[in-house]
Amino acid sequence: MDLVFIAQDCINGVLMGLIYGLVALGLTLIFGVLKVINFAHGSFLMVGMYVAYWAVTLSGLHPYLALVIIVPAMFLFGYWIQNLLIRPIFIAEKNVREPITVIIVTTGLWYVLDNLALLVFGPDYRALAPNPLKGQMLEFGEIFISVPKLYGAIATLATAGGLYLFLQRTRLGRAVRATSLDREAASLMGIGQWKIFNIAFGIGTAVAGISGAVLTPFYNVYPTVGIPFDIKSFVIVVLGGLGSIWGALVGGVIVGLIESVGPNFMASTWTEGIVYALFLLVLFVKPSGLFGQKQDW
Amino acid sequence: MTQQNFKRNCLIAATLAAFALPLVVRSATYLHILIILYLYAYMTTTWNLVGGFAGVLPLGHAVFVGIGAYTSTVLWLQYGVTPWIGMLAGGVLAGAVGFLIGKPTLKMRGAYFALSTMAFVEGIRVMVENIDMLGPFNLNGPRGLNIPPLAHGEVNFWAFQFATKEPYYYIILTMLVGVLFLTWAISRSKMGFYLKGGGEEPDAAQALGVNVARYKVMAMVLSSFLTAMAGTFLAQLTLFIYPKSVLTLDLSFELAFIALIGGRGSIAGPIIGALLLRPVTEFSRIYFSSTLPGLHLIILGVVLIVVMLFQPRGLTEPLTNFFNSIARRFDASAREERK
Q1: Is the pLDDT of residue B239 over 70?
Q2: Which of A9, A201, B80, B181 has the smallest set of CB atoms within 10 Å of its CB?
Q3: Mean pLDDT score of chain B, rounded to an integer?
């Protein structure tokens, strides 16, 4: 087998994997603070992609400049959803640390959002219309690198770094970490639990919005676009360890590599199966994942 | 008539009415809708064995429907084994898979179990879509399996094929009544109490010496076995199965949604859920599928969210209270008469 092809696949896998990691980042952040899995995360990504699509189509902005619209809009959306749907569950089930009802409600939300998108926008696959990044390639000898994917990978690293700094260095970030470690103790220190939950959910959703902006330049938008990413994100966060930022990125790269290098050795439709098998293996052998904490499972 | 007697008589009357229904309903279309309704009630009841009583959230029960459908169909097509035996074989295979999923994950947090059931249904769908031959068994990949319909003279009980809808109706109704009775018996048994205790207060149950995880795994295996039987029935009813029809997340979610809206952990819950929600699905599919695609799924999702937020134990609870108040009135009037 030609080494150049393998190198090419590895680069593609790492770039795409980092973008998967970006999608999973929002999920892992919400889990880290609320200790619940947001099953509607893929649908949030879908909403983010539609917001990005319309923001770019209507304003003609560069997709990355449109982030100034997308990020606040998605933050408010997540903030509002947590306040409206998730908070009442935590209040009703006060003595349960991670109520399973949240999974049920967010799964319901997944169905509502996906099918609302189908109702409003129709089943069409939409490609970004004024797309300044369309099909651009960087050439290094025999190796080609897709520019929108490269930008996406850079955006992922920037977002992860920004989140890390926010959590480690700012007052609000410390409050978020305190709430994640021990809700009651944090409340006693004067940290409003609901406000932190709202903000964490908002940030997680905003990250889904960033992923949307990153994906639209090379990925079509359609109502069920979230589903493959949703399931992949679950796999990635368990692989990397629920609640771990860097674990999400490493998990993403592993999945990305399986998907791009795998087809050299098997039918490409099989790679999806390999990813699920790996997921179950991690679940059975080391449920805390690569970077997770033991108490988190 | 005492309250207890009144309730029992109502139950018997409803069962008899269900068995007598085909005498009145002659249209094959309506019978088919009823058959599907009962099939869903059956599948949500078996879902409820683990999702309701054991207090966890299985989101991949379609995998058992698929195993049941594929096992009996392969045995029938390749070896001529009657689907009735295939039904049991599928059940055993599904029970083994249920054990495989449940054993490691049921002692972990709820989310992990939900995720691994989803991964299983997706993983097995990918597997079936990608292979034509599993060892000696022909699964025919994404194209699925066709059961050639027998001529009118050849249909018989052993072939599990019938010329009219009535036999299917009676088979699924019997299955439904049987599984309801089983659920009732379990809910009154030691296992039922252990499961309920483990679902509601796992730490307290553990402290009392109940091996919660073990009973959850038992419930999972039983539920998998019974769900697979529904898969065989579905295959024989439609005579055509393919991965995207029986091995999907959509079917898995729909079962969970119906049971949850009806009321998890109660015997009547899945029945009430199916009675309320299946017609919504059928009618919006018939009347709005071209103009408002996905409407029934929006309704399903919204109803689920609203029920979970305001009536988390499901719609059965207020309905049961209403029914009980009627039953009490009967009791009271009976007491008046005696005076």
Answers
A1: yes
A2: B80
A3: 84
Question: H or E element: which one contains B134?
Answer: strand B133-134
Alpha-carbon radius of gyration of chain B = 21
Reported ipTM: the value is 0.84
Model pLDDT for residues B163-218, shown as the tens digit of each residue:
788 888 999 999 999 999 998 888 888 777 777 777 667 677 777 777 778 888 88
Quote the CA–CA distance of A287 and B212 in Å, as a whole number.
Answer: 20
Residue A107 is assigned to a structural domain of this protein: yes
Q: How far apart are CA B339 and CA B333, in angstroms?
A: 10
What ranges do the domains of chain B cover?
3-338
Q: Identify the pLDDT of residue A75.
A: 92
Closest chain B residue by Cα to residue A234: B115
pLDDT band at A296 (very low <50, low <70, confident <90, very high): very low
**Contact between A283 and B104 using a beta-carbon 8 Å cutoff:** yes
Tell me whether residue A184 is in a domain: yes
Reduce the DSSP state of residue A283 to 3 states and report it. Answer: helix
Closest CA to B297 of A111, A226, A123: A111
* A262 domain-assigned: no
Checking if the pLDDT of B119 tops 60, the result is: yes
Alpha carbons A87 and A198: distance in angstroms, whole number: 9
pLDDT tier, B90 (very low <50, low <70, confident <90, very high otherwise): very high
Domain of residue A177 covers 21-226
Interval B54-64: pLDDT, tens:
778 888 899 99
| Residues linked to residue A284 through DSSP beta bridges, in sequence order | none
Is B111 in contact with A235 (Cβ distance < 8 A)? Answer: no
A146-202 residue pLDDT tens: 888 888 888 889 988 888 888 888 888 888 888 887 777 887 887 878 888 888 889
Judged by DSSP in three states, A145 sits in strand
| B16 contacts chain A (CB < 8 A) | no
Checking if the pLDDT of B4 tops 90, the result is no
The answer to whether the CB atoms of B297 and A115 lie below 8 A apart is: yes
Q: Which of B264, B308, B313 to mutate to test the interface with A (most CBs of A within 10 A)?
A: B308
Please say whether the beta carbons of A214 and A221 come within 8 A: no
By CA distance, what is B290's nearest residue in A?
A: A119
Residue B165, pLDDT score: 83
Please state, in angstroms and as integers, the Cα–Cα distance from residue B320 to each residue in A181, B295, B324, following that order. Answer: 42, 29, 6
Q: What is the number of domains present in chain A?
A: 1
A205, B147, B170, B331 from B160: Cα distances, Å: 51, 11, 12, 46
- Measure Cα distances from A289 to A31, A177, A256, A296 in Å: 14, 20, 17, 10
CA distance B144 to A41: 32
- Specify burial of residue A208 (Cβ count, 10 A radius: 0-12, 13-18, 19+): buried
